[in-house]
Amino acid sequence: MIESNDDAAYGSADLDALHHIAGGADLLVHVIELSLGGAQLLGDLLGSRRAKLGDLLFGARDALFGVGQPSGQVAQLAGQAGFGTLDGQDVGLARKLALETDCSDVHESMKGGAADFVLLDVRGPKSYAQAHVPGALNLPHRHITAERMMAWPHEMLFVVYCAGPHCNGADKAALRLANLGRPVKVMLGGMTGWADEGFAFEMAQEMEA
């Protein structure tokens, strides 16, 4: 049997070309591996920074609205909301509930006439006179001052609302109250949400009668 010599089948120039091709392929593979490693590192860095940014935003919001709560209170709030154990997204949802309420909950709490909060309509007097949520007091957000709030105990919770999702008056009021160290929640939807729920309104004339 005649044994073939593979090297003899190619000329020296061909062998050199093949070696160069093989070397280039190895270099290309190495470059791809480095690129993938760099992409993974970049992804890890971005993910880490995104997580840190989320923590900073939550911390800023808690400080802004005065709702930084011990972990036990947050866990209890999450349990009441049916979230179970607190992890990941649940923490954000629990913090959200600490800042907000909705029209249905406010309506239910006000029915008995012994709500444990003060409901503030923070729109102007004319809008309030035309129609407002029953039981709400009119206090435009620009009039919220330390002197004005002395009429209520410092620990009293305030629920604020304005015209609706298109209005930021409730957010301005919440910010003022939080800066004064007052517990506050925003009633989502405002007057628009109250109407959507089919709840009745009250007029200033009705209160005076």
How many helical elements? 9
Low-confidence region ranges: 1-10, 48-54, 56-71, 73-78
Q: What is the tally of beta strands?
A: 5
Query: What is the percent of helical residues?
Result: 55-70%
Q: Return the string of H and E elements.
A: HHHEHEHEHEHEHH
What share of residues are in beta strands? Answer: 5-15%
Instruction: Supply the helix-strand structural class.
Output: alpha/beta
Give average pLDDT, whole number: 73
Q: What is the level 1 CATH name of the domain at 101-204?
A: Alpha Beta
Largest sheet: 5 strands, parallel
What is the name of the CATH superfamily of the domain at 101-204? Rhodanese-like domain
Task: Please describe what this structure looks like.
The protein is of the alpha/beta class. Among the domains are: 10-51; 101-204, Oxidized Rhodanese, domain 1, CATH 3.40.250. Helices cover 56% and strands 10% of the residues. The protein has helices spanning 12-65, 71-80, 89-99, 103-111, 125-130, 146-149, 169-179, 190-196, 204-208; strands spanning 100-102, 117-121, 137-138, 157-161, 184-188. Strands 1-5-4-2-3 form a five-stranded parallel beta sheet. Helix 5 links the parallel strand 2 (117-121) and strand 3 (137-138). It is globular. Residues 1-10, 48-54, 56-71 and 73-78 have low confidence and may be disordered.
Summarize the structure.
Among the domains are: 10-51; 101-204, Oxidized Rhodanese, domain 1 (3-Layer(aba) Sandwich), CATH 3.40.250.10. It is 56% helix and 10% strand. The chain has helices at 12-65, 71-80, 89-99, 103-111, 125-130, 146-149, 169-179, 190-196, 204-208; strands spanning 100-102, 117-121, 137-138, 157-161, 184-188.
